[in-house]
Amino acid sequence: MRFINPIPFVRDIERSKQFYRDRLGLEILEDFGSFVLFASGFAIHEASALEQTIWRQACEGSEPYGRRNLLLYFEDDDVDLAFATIAPHVELIHPVERQAWGQRVFRFYDPDGHAIEIGEPPIEIGEPQAPGVPVPS
Fold this sequence. Notes:
This protein is of the alpha/beta class. The protein has three helices and eight strands; from the N terminus they run βαβββαβαβββ. It has helices spanning 13-23, 47-55, 79-86, and strands at 9-10, 28-31, 35-38, 43-46, 71-75, 91-98, 104-109, 115-119. Strand 7 (104-109) and strand 8 form a beta hairpin. The longest helix is centred in the N-terminal third of the chain and has 11 residues, at 13-23. The radius of gyration is 17 Å and the shape is globular.
């Protein structure tokens, strides 16, 4: 058995598809209407269609799907450029910050309220470190 990926439920597939393609720069591999698969392996599914498939009925209500219990993680070689490009168009959780483990990341919400983290690739063992950053072992 192998884990493939989580598939976030989205309320408006067109809005979310545009967000992930235009704001995060993800390339669409397949677009099946209610399900979109990006070249990175990330996927989104329109909630009403997926709820019907899984539970045989769409859930009622308009509460956001993102509930502060899931973080969608992406990496970018230039986290500062990614921040400058994305930040003006999203609700930020926080700007670029260095985490305790040395990685620089920023976090924000997608249109459905899912938390997203964009981080620089982890530093490999033996690579030069910024001052005060612990060396991975």
